[in-house]
Amino acid sequence: MALLASCTCTEVIQTKSTNNLPFNRSEGYTYENDTIIVRYSFWANYGVMGMSIYNKLNKPIYIDWGNSALIENGNTLNFWKDQTQSISNTTSLGYGKYNNTAAVGINKSQTNTTVYRPTRVMSIPPKSQVNEGGLHICSDVFNFYPKPGNYDYDLTPIKFRSYIVLSTDQDIKTQFYVDQEFYVSDAKYIDQSYLNGRQVLINGHWEYTEPFRRGDWFYINNIQGYTGMDPYKAYGDPNN
Question: Pick from 149, 178, 153: which is nearest to 55 by CA?
Answer without folding.
Answer: 178
